[in-house]
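Researcher: Here's a chain I'd like modeled. Treat it as a single chain, no partners, no ligands.
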Amino acid sequence: MVRGGGDPQVERAQEIIVDASVAVKWFSEEEGSERALALRDEHVDGEMTLVAPDLLVYEIENALRFKPGFTPSATAKALDDLFGLQIDFMAPSSEVVRRGAELAFEYGITAYDSCYLSLGEALGTEVVTADGRLHERAKGCGFLRFL
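Model: Modeled as a single isolated chain. Structure tokens:
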């Protein structure tokens, strides 16, 4: 597992993993956007550190591609803003991907969703989702919270 930059000697704020269902609400007003923005703001204020698999970037790009009113330039701006948040994006590792496959089968979820769970398990941190179906299927893992 490869972490984004940062000095390992510096004490880090509490880490929380957010999935794409949460992050897309930062750019598109919809139910739950206020709570999602509050999480983002806590990260910006240094009260917590948002972590996500690098897959999040592509999921946001795809979600915004199909949102009414989003143009190529609006989508590009949102992606620039996403990178500007300095989320700790994690590259995949064989350990996390392998565990993700197990979780996908165990909970009957997509491999995309399972990568957030396997990362949360590997880091020992909470995963926050706004995806009701994912939450319902995988809430038994013990570290998944609905936004």
